[in-house]
């Protein structure tokens, strides 16, 4: 069956630190996905559009809404314009690729903050998780799977992708926000061996997006 | 052995929502602990002082320090005065009682933010966790144990205390920041049955604080 609907995927760079490596890693992940799509088109003839969201640039303050997000149905239900804009942006997307660092064995506060601002805008949508860190960020990945899949009733894939720094020099570059020499996809990079994991997980997300798009038509 | 050092315990109310029940629940927990201390003094003759910290009133912005907290040794190493003040406040405390809600099966962003601002100020210090929520906040408790015990190398107790709302009316009061009718300790409240859990867990924290104080003398 051919699905005419265009499916929109948000690639969310979760790091909001002043000095951060998140945006370049998110760009690298998106590059791998778009390259893979040229070789393996999404099932059901789904047309895909990508939108990168750098939470550091978005600049949401620490949650300042008086209401409970789960009780609010539309962007107009929020008090602040920054929340209404964020609500509209997330509501317009059909699925998500979360790319994040791990802070103290958990989700970075800036990412958790952006997530907790909303509820119905996330609910039921499929997502994949890519973490990075000295040990791959496995604790942040598990916490994020639980929050998004359990707390927000989104559709989690079984596996997450965890990018482990190959050495202290890479950690130092990440900490300083220096170039990691990642793009373009398909060429030698520090995480060359994880490119196939990202592509494989992406294809599962694409299948989940296609299934949802088919049901919606 | 008598320990002359006064041990200082921070009771941290983790909620930073505009409308929040956290401070009244934290006050109730502190009341139970202080009442229990009159009946069961801390081991080793430890003298105790308590300081309540309401993170909502503290008003830290979303992490805006350029450095990695683990690499910073003193308050003067931070860029912003709000971080230096927070560093001094936490460094002066010997142990902690974390009282927090659960947001979307995870740690509230405001609490994670306040935690992630620092590193060496937390390290090695004992803590206990009290969560509250519709299902007691067990996911937030587990995430917090992992972040504080694993990520920050603090001393976790084995058990956490999870306060489950007895009904929707209590949830609604919490959501609206209305009085829950909690204090004073020892009288009938919605969580009357959990008072002994709080006191029991507190006695374990007091023993841990006494052991640390003894080693330090």
Automatic annotation (TrEMBL), chains A, B:
Q: Known InterPro entries for this protein?
A: Flavoprotein-like_sf (IPR029039), FMN_Rdtase-like_dom (IPR005025), NAD(P)H-dep_reductase (IPR050712)
A Pfam family per the record: FMN_red
The UniProt entry's coiled-coil ranges are: none
This protein's GO CC annotations: cytosol
- Domain NADPH-dependent FMN reductase-like residue range list: 8-163
The molecular function terms of the Gene Ontology recorded here are: FMN binding; oxidoreductase activity
**What's the protein called, per UniProt?**
NADPH-dependent FMN reductase-like domain-containing protein
Instruction: State the organism named in the record.
Output: Sporothrix schenckii (strain ATCC 58251 / de Perez 2211183) (Rose-picker's disease fungus)
